[in-house]
């Protein structure tokens, strides 16, 4: 790839109305990494029917923080759906397996972050997903070129402070548009 390739790390991907893949229809994805090798991200607006308490019980962890018990676990994407991914603000605490997103958040996949959350020592603002979203080299760029996604610089406030059902519209608002302004048709000059 040329040196002027786009880097969408720490961006939101917002699914366009014409998104062909029903897995991603209506989603907002936080991109944790985007390079010439591909991309990895987490869907931030698809809560599952699993809450933190029930997930922690499955992992033999006792959740000490009661207000977190009913926080939903999210569908992060169709890849490795049996594995947990924690998107969180930096805590300054090194976890066994974390990806620090330049200018953004951290994504941790090791159990030590869940243990820290369970005992009240973990990140205060986090989103736990099962699975992640992944694209091979050039695949995401191709989907964007075919009008599959809009991109915008990510805002952690949308990830952590906006109710899940409102995150799609909040991400679009970062671009100054509403969903009624979108079209499934692409225009090319």
**Residue fraction in strands:** 25-35%
Shape label: globular
Distance between the termini: 23 Å
Helical amount:
10-25%
Mean of pLDDT? 90
What's the total number of strands?
A: 10
Number of domains: 1
Helical stretch tally: 5
Query: CATH homologous superfamily - what is it?
Result: VC0467-like
> What CATH architecture do you see?
3-Layer(aba) Sandwich
Radius of gyration: 17 Å
Q: In oligomeric terms, what are we looking at?
A: single chain
What name does CATH use for the topology? VC0467-like
Overall SS class: alpha+beta
Largest sheet geometry: 10 strands, mixed
Q: Which regions have little confidence, pLDDT < 50, spanning 5+ residues?
A: none
* Strand/helix succession: EEEEHEEEEHEHEHH
Under CATH at level 1, the class stands as Alpha Beta
Protein name: UPF0301 protein PEP31012_00611
Family: Belongs to the UPF0301 (AlgH) family.
Pfam families: DUF179 (PF02622)
InterPro entries: AlgH-like
Question: How would you summarize the topology of this molecule?
Answer:
Layout (H helix, E strand, L loop, with lengths): L10 E5 L12 E8 L2 E6 L3 E5 H7 L13 E4 L3 E10 L9 E3 L5 E3 L2 H8 L7 E11 L2 H7 L3 E5 L2 H6 L5 H7 L16
Parallel strand pairs: 5-9
Antiparallel strand pairs: 1-2, 1-10, 2-3, 3-9, 4-5, 6-8, 6-9, 7-8
């Amino acid at each position: 790839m040329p040196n002027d390739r786009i880097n969408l790390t720490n961006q939101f991907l917002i699914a366009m109305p014409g998104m062909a893949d029903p897995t991603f229809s209506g989603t907002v994805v936080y991109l944790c990494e985007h390079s010439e090798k591909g991309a990895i991200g987490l869907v931030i607006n698809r809560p599952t029917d699993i809450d933190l308490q029930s997930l922690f019980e499955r992992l033999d962890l006792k959740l000490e923080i009661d207000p977190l018990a009913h926080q939903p676990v999210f569908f992060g994407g169709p890849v490795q759906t049996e594995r947990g991914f924690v998107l969180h603000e930096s805590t300054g605490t090194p976890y066994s397996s974390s990806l620090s997103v330049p200018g953004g958040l951290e994504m941790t996949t090791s159990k030590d972050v869940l243990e820290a959350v369970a005992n009240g020592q973990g990140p205060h603002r986090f989103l736990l997903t099962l699975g992640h979203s992944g694209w091979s080299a050039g695949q995401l760029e191709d989907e964007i070129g075919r009008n599959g996604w809009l991109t915008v610089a990510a805002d952690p406030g949308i990830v952590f402070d906006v109710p899940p059902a409102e995150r799609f519209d909040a991400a679009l608002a970062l671009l100054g548009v509403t969903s009624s302004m979108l079209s499934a048709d692409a225009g090319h000059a």
